[in-house]
Amino acid sequence: MTEPRLAEVQAELAALDDPKTREGNERRGDTHGVNLAQLRALAKRVKTNHELALELWATGDTASRLLAILICRPKAFSADELDAMVREEPTPKGHDWLVNYVVKKSPHAEELRLAWLDDADPLAASAAWALNAQRVSKQPERLEPEELPAMLDTIEAEMKNAPKQVQWEMNTSLAMIGINHPPFRARAIDIGERLEVLKDYPTAPNCTSPFAPIWIGEMVRRQTAK
């Protein structure tokens, strides 16, 4: 595809829309009917095109926004642009991709993490906790001595009654602390056992439950077996 225009790309997305895929996605809160493998193939053909990504994002269409995330330049966004984007994308897949594929690669990630931590908007707060989980698991050298105890205090006090999307990311942070930081493992498991968040979450065979005590135990077992 050479110099793709917005209308051309949206026509391709429309042609990929499948009613059965849409039905399944909508049950999970994702308002699009495009197979993600096909979406990624389209992104590969379009290639990185930040200007087109901005146009696609502005449409508000979920599939268009997912494609925009795949073809944008994460480092080209300002902190204000990312803040606005996180607050205006409510679909689970769109929000997840935006945080993981764009915000986490941005030079503004730490600035935004700190700004969002106490935000009343669940979309912003969940993004902050997703960044916390990355910090805990991938950037331990950046942690201050008091950070992990403070995170555990907040999780213990707030996770049980947090909005769904915030609760999910808090739980991920709890698991990452338990998996990656042995001195805090027992406390992380204890918090998970007492709060019972995601204890009954349906888990496919051969997949690990997101219930933190099980998740921690399985990942530590795998580490030990290596």
Describe this structure in words.
- This protein has 226 residues and is mostly helical.
- It has 13 helices and no strands.
- It has helices at 6-16, 19-27, 36-46, 50-58, 62-71, 79-88, 92-102, 109-116, 122-138, 147-158, 164-180, 185-195, 212-225.
- α8 packs across α9, α9 (122-138) runs parallel beside α11 and α11 packs parallel to α13.
- The longest helix has 17 residues, at 122-138.
- It is globular.
- The model has no long low-confidence stretch (mean pLDDT 96).
Which key terms come to mind for this protein?
0% strand, 226 residues, mainly alpha
At a glance:
The chain is mostly helical and 226 residues long. 66% of the residues lie in helices and 0% in strands.
Structural topology:
Blueprint lengths: L5 H11 L2 H9 L8 H11 L3 H9 L3 H10 L7 H10 L3 H11 L6 H8 L5 H17 L8 H12 L5 H17 L4 H11 L16 H14 L1
**Quantity of strands, as a count:** 0
Report the biggest beta sheet as strand number plus sense, adding barrel if it closes. Answer: none
Estimated helix fraction: 55-70%
Rg, Å, rounded: 19 Å
Average pLDDT number: 96
Low-confidence stretches: none
Distance between the termini: 45 Å
Structural class: mainly alpha
Shape: globular
- Secondary-structure element string: HHHHHHHHHHHHH
Strand content: under 5%
- The total count of helices amounts to 13
